[in-house]
Amino acid sequence: MKRLAPLLAAAGLLASTLPLLTATQVSAAPAPAYLGQQPAWHRCSPDQPASYECATLKVPLDYRRPQGSTIDLAISRVKSENPAKRHGVMLLNPGGPGGPGLDLPLMAGEMMPKEVRDQYDLIGFDPRGVGASSPISCGLTDTEQNFDRPYRPETFSSDVTWARTVADKCRENAGAVLPHITTRNTARDMDTIRAVLGERKVSYLGYSYGTYLGAVYAQMFPERTDRFVLDSGVDPQRIWRGMIQVWATEAEPAYTRWTGWAAERSAEFGLGDSPKAVSDTFWALVARADREPIDFEGQKVNGDLIRSARGVFFYPAQATPLIAALKAAAEGKPQPAGPDAAELKRLLTGGRAAAQPASDNGTAVFWAVVCGDTGSWPRYTEQYERDAARDKVRYPLYGDFASNVKPCAFWDRPLEAATPMKKKANVLTVQNEWDSQTPLTSGQGLHRALKGSRMVLVAGGEGHGVYLVDPASCANAPVNSYLTTGRLPAEDVTCRTEPAPAERQGSAAPSKPSKPLPFPAGPGRF
User: Cα 219 to chain center, whole Å?
Assistant: First the structure.
């Protein structure tokens, strides 16, 4: 763990420690000084186990200038308790962009089966700009952080003002650092962690946005890529406007599935006895809320807020009581029996209605990455207006939200192009069929892009995140096998998780899986 760069060079391993240089360049280039640092491991917190250790590295702000300014990179670890079975290190990422990851070794380690856990030192890190890693801020208000903005011709100019304001405030408050908060630089940070720890290769478990980060690492450093699990996939061909727009296109089949589920339970929920009747009830409720907002749990709910909750329709057992409760509130009737009304409100707002404004660190990093990874964002506001008007008709649930103007229209041009997916990547991708944040078509796009990958698909699976998120998922067995043996399945795997006994006997569908891992909060994240 504490081998230094000179020792690596003497062992002929210096080429594997340089995050930027190719093997042919190494002989003429000394090891950058930051690769010679030794992590000063210490107990992360007195109220956490002593095995959970933290350290802070210094990494280049700009890897093109390795002797220039540095930023902090906070890392953590829980070491394998079985050195005889130890295979190496596994880096972890929860998604985002903007999600902190220092807690992941402790949390994931508690949930992994022993045969997997024994093989790895689990390594967490707050990606650059996040949490304890030289965090950035744009100074955004709580209102400015919300980018769920419906399109209307009369309000589009205010949408443009919002997008420009966010870009300007980010440039003003974090301009020197902002261009370097990108996926490619975070991948370089991952390789710096590998090098400082003295490892030839790294294994990796990444969720959601973390799948794209892992894919980029596998393309930039293929010879250092070991066992990679990419769970709930981001399609590299869609970064990043297309990944927001896919929320709209894929909400429509989820909505259609929901109407059928609710119609089969019309006696219980009273939303209609056919899919069309349920849909008519829903859109009448949206129109009613637009005319006169519904008072629901102390909040005025308009039709746009109902539409913006598009993610809930991927979970029929959650969406149906929510819509039934809103309908009862609109009609001035008592709330129907079922889930707690406060929980239904949380589903509707996606957790946005916090008592106090949240720090904008996660939002600042989100826009830095989403706008700074690719130069493909349109630069003319007229295109956003045309697209939003068109998609409001094509995808009425969320189309205008997804295609409306974003701060990236006013962002500075990226310093690098997006990473092409041309190299073979023997990685394992994992996907639920009904995933609201990285829908199935996105996960399939990641699998296609990574030549040599295998996919484990949970048919009928609901939820964002599979491995370790749903303890009963049928995907766990093939993932565990890959992580313990390093052997990919011979072919893609499609499986179906057996429902719990109560679900087989009753009318309920599987509820939304719990999220024991710290996925970034809110519906507008990957």
Answer: 19
Please tell me whether residue 493 adopts helix, strand or coil conformation. Answer: strand
E-strand ranges in 142-282 read: 202-207, 225-231
> Distances from the Cα of 495 to the Cαs of 185, 260, 430, 459, in angstroms?
36, 23, 11, 6
The DSSP-derived string for 377-431 is S---HHHHHHHHHHHHHHSTTTHHHHHS--GGGGSPPPSSPPPP--S----EEEE
Q: Name the pTM for this structure.
A: 0.91
* Amino acid at residue number 163: A
Instruction: For 367, list phi and psi in degrees, rounded to 5.
Output: -70, -35
DSSP tag of 55: E
Catalytic residue IDs: 208, 435, 464
Q: pLDDT of 184-242, one tens digit each?
A: 999 999 999 999 999 999 999 999 999 999 999 999 999 999 999 999 999 999 999 99
The radius of gyration of the chain from alpha carbons, rounded to an integer in Å, stands at: 24
92 three-class SS: strand
Amino acid occupying residue 220: M
User: Cis before residue 240, ω within 30 degrees of 0?
Assistant: yes
C-alpha dist (Å) from residue 90 to 75, 121, 154, 215: 12, 6, 51, 15
Identify any residues that bridge with 202 across adjacent strands, giving them in sequence order: 225
| Amino acid present at 43 | R
Structure tokens, 169: 């405030």
- Residue 354: alpha-carbon gap to chain centroid: 21
Distance separating alpha carbons of residues 164 and 401, to the nearest angstrom: 17
Closest CA to 76 of 132, 17, 5, 4: 132
Q: How many CB atoms lie within 10 A of CB 267?
A: 8
Number of CB atoms found within 10 A of residue 49's CB: 12
